[in-house]
Amino acid sequence: MPRLPSRCRGRPYLPSFMSAFKFETTANEAASAVSSNIKGKNVIITGASPKSLAFEAAKAIAARQPNLLVLTARSPSLLQETRDTILSEVADVNIKIVEFDLSKQDTIREAAAKLSAFDVKFDVIINSAGVMAPPYALTAEGIESQFGINHIGHFLFTNLLVPKINEGATIINVTSRGYQLGNIQWDDISFEKNSYNKWHAYAQSKAANILFSGALARRLAHRNITSFSVHPGTIHTNLGRHLTQEDLDMLAGIPMEFKNPQQGAANMVIAAFDPSIKDRNGAHIDDDNQIKAIPAQFAYATGVENEDRLWALSEELVKEKFVY
Asked: What residue ranges are annotated as transmembrane (predicted)?
């Protein structure tokens, strides 16, 4: 792993903020607490396949009378399974499914165009889809798959939808404490010069999720749009389907306290709908459902300079500029 910077630079993060929610809070409990802010909203959730955190968040939100719940994933059959499961529990919710592949920018553009044709504007986007520590692969555009799917795909998808989101909307980017496993290789994002390390690749994609939220918070503040990054915690889901015992052994010594999927999905709901944090725009919510500062030794995951550098790199990789 590369040596980590010792201090933060750029925009300082706000100090820790104590909310009413705890480590053990479930998505259902969080949704019940903020139900009045879910009712009537138009919500998009990416990565809503069965056995995912997005699936748990979607179920909790669906039960609180949103106007429209849009679920996306790569597999149409898995999306249909998610939709059918939710409708078997909440019969009167309006659910639409849109399949697209975050590793293929043409399908992202097609999905965004389809959503832009809907006769509503959106109040919440929860970018939850992702991959973790797979074997080395490239996206259709030649970007290392974790950075390409976890960040670049959501960067393009979100920015294409900005014209279709309401004033006061909220954008959530699901990150991970895994951002602490390695810095951003600004000059070698796709490991063309350095040997591939799956955990380092994961780390830089998750640091990008944090920086993207900070950048959105600044750039869209004039429309009262907020953005937060959230670390759900350590949970057994299908995200870990690529992991070998050797991969897990590499994480030995890192403190972990496991959650169940319902608990893991809670801070997506909190970040999206809790009105008490609206004035903490750009903040990071940890797995105890509290707003926390990014520790100083991980300076690559914070600061205006890094946010703007990532934005410029992302525009280059999607071959489109987004100015607000």
From this structure: none
